[in-house]
Write the structure tokens for this entry.
Amino acid sequence: MQEKRQICQYIFPKRKRMQSRNGHLWKLALAIGFSVGWAPTLDLKAETSQNKNAATSISGTVSYQTDAQRPWRFGRYYIKGKDKHLAEAVVELIPVSPNTSFPPQINRTPKTYLMDQENFMFVPETLAVQLGDKVRFKNSEEAFHNVMCLDDKPPFNVNLAKGQEYIHEPKVADGTLKPLNIRCVFHGSMKGWLVVVPHQHYKLTDASGAFQFKDFPAGTYKLRVIHPAGDLVLETDAREITEGGSIQWNIALSPDHLRKTKQ
Ligand SMILES: [Cu+2]
């Protein structure tokens, strides 16, 4: 028995040392592996499970299908490239399922957007902002301008001389359903639009026409696309998106989507 214990005491410390040394060797191998760009199996597994819980997402582009019989007079300003992508459209994700809503964003830092006045135009003409964001209206030219909005509560009407600005936080947030009309009382041709959205799932398109929404709850959704400057509006059919699902959803507007009555 005594002899056996002695043997054990002799063997186990040695084994520990071997394990420890093997542990160091393994770490060394890992370090070398990482340095030459090799990823161990363990990490690949972690990535797979992350994919399983990947964020729900919708990506797509907005384009405009022209029709020679029904020309759209604003097309030359907003239709871009051979794929006829549409710039300055606003896409909004709209929940359709009764129990789907967007959770409030916590600790979000509001942004301030600029809408300038240049060459007797609002620049840009269309802004899409989230409720809580502010808009800085500015006059950058010699002409005396004004900025007026009767759709917000309270409405505002402010004169702006060269270099002057007015910062406003819009409160009426009907999103793409009803943009706020921005006008200059002195120049009837000056028109701007503020799309104030009560959540973060919206996009103002650029020349690529692209949009992407992610990190929203699984459910049934439709997309509403408007082009305030060009008087276009389209509402898609509803589609179901499962948890972690990712879908491509391209939108094509056409003369069929011209608003019947001007806003
Ligand atoms: Cu003006």
